[in-house]
Amino acid sequence: MKIQIIGGSGTGKSTLGKYISEKEKIKWIDTDNYLWKDNSFTENFSVEERKKMYQKDMEIHKEYVASGSIFSWCPDGFRNRDLLVFLFLDEKVRMDRLQKREIERKSQFSQMNTGENTNDFLEWCKTYLTATEKEITGTYAEHAYQMELSKSSVLKLDASLSLEELHVEILNFYS
After folding, report:
1. Which of 43-47, 51-55, 98-102, 158-162 bottoms out in mean pLDDT, i.e. has the lowest?
2. What's the structural domain count of the chain?
3. Containing domain of residue 25, as a range?
4. pLDDT tens column, 107-153
5. Residues 6 or more apart from 82 whose CB is under 8 A from it?
6. Where does the chain have alpha helices with state H?
7. Considering the domain boundaries, does residue 129 fall inside one?
8. What is the CATH classification number for the domain harbouring 28?
9. Which of 72, 128, 138, 159 is paired with 95 by a 20 to 30 Å CA distance?
């Protein structure tokens, strides 16, 4: 089992990846760990360091579930996967999840004229569906391009389903 899960921020990629990892007893690779040096999400690893970590994971783990994308800095990453899962979610639900997560992380906010609390990350997340250039990391355009190029099967799943339901849909692929 070699699965990669992609989708917009807040669709539940990490939550589903961790769940599958626990149920199937396989390695969970959270691609955020390649990018960020710590949970403050402020300092990145260099591309060279990311590639070394990725290569080590691929050498060590014969089976895995990876949550997230490395396409922008390693376009050939996870090419050995069996399945590419794309999670989609109603945009209002997704943004509500992200707002709640930012509050839980005690992120800094500024207030817009509308009274809405926001920050750079949330403003970037709002462009997920509207950005049209596939080179823009973490956008639907980039994810659609990844699905188009994928040599593995692609499974599109509604992230509003329960973890158990999503897991069953993925297991059905392997049946």
Report:
1. 98-102
2. 1
3. 2-89+134-174
4. 666 666 566 777 678 888 899 999 999 988 889 999 999 999 999 99
5. 1, 2, 3, 152, 153, 174
6. 13-24, 32-35, 47-60, 91-104, 120-125, 140-149, 163-174
7. no
8. 3.40.50.300
9. 72
Q: Identify which of 54, 15, 19, 17 has the alpha carbon closest to the alpha carbon of residue 34.
A: 54
Is 112 within the bounds of a domain?
no
- CA angle 36/37/41 to nearest 5° reads 50
pLDDT value of residue 36: 83
Residues 6+ apart with CB under 8 A from 102: 109, 119, 121, 122
Asked whether residue 22 is assigned to any structural domain, the reply reads yes
- What number is the average pLDDT over the span 157-163? 98
Which residues fall within 8 angstroms of residue 165, CB to CB, at 6 or more apart? none
Cross-strand pairs, 85: 5, 155
Dist CA 88 CA 84 (whole Å): 13
3-state SS, residue 144: helix
Q: What is the pTM of this model?
A: 0.89
pLDDT digits (tens, 9 = 90+) for 67-84: 999 999 999 999 999 999
Whose tokens are 């992230």? That residue is 159
Question: Which residue reads 């669709």 in tokens?
Answer: 11
Would residue 96 count as lying in a domain? no
DSSP 45: P
